[in-house]
Amino acid sequence: MKKTYTPAFKAQVVQELLKETKTITQLAAEHSVHPNVLREWKVTVLKGMASLFEKGDSVEALRAAYDQQLEDRYAQIGRLTTQVTWLKKKSGLDPDKS
């Protein structure tokens, strides 16, 4: 059965690994984690580190995309409402016209 580790545990071990006060083998033995797994965690952290500083830009981009999507949906609702009203009027099913 494969062991699963919490993100907090992974972060703690990788922090210790990046301090370089102990070898990977020593940390692996201390925390009962295979050295290859520690190497993978370290690579993941180092690759993803740049994205930590891009957070503000990505939040703004997501907000702009959300606002645009919301505006498009409201426009579509307006068009569909107009079409339904027109169809009801033409079909004679307009409840307001009775």
UniProtKB/TrEMBL annotation:
Alphabetical list of InterPro entries matching this protein: Homeodomain-like_sf, Transposase_8
Source organism superkingdom: Bacteria
Coiled coil stretches, renumbered: none
Any single biological process term in GO: DNA transposition
A single GO molecular function term of this UniProt record: DNA binding
Official protein name in the record: Transposase
Organism for this UniProt entry: Kouleothrix aurantiaca
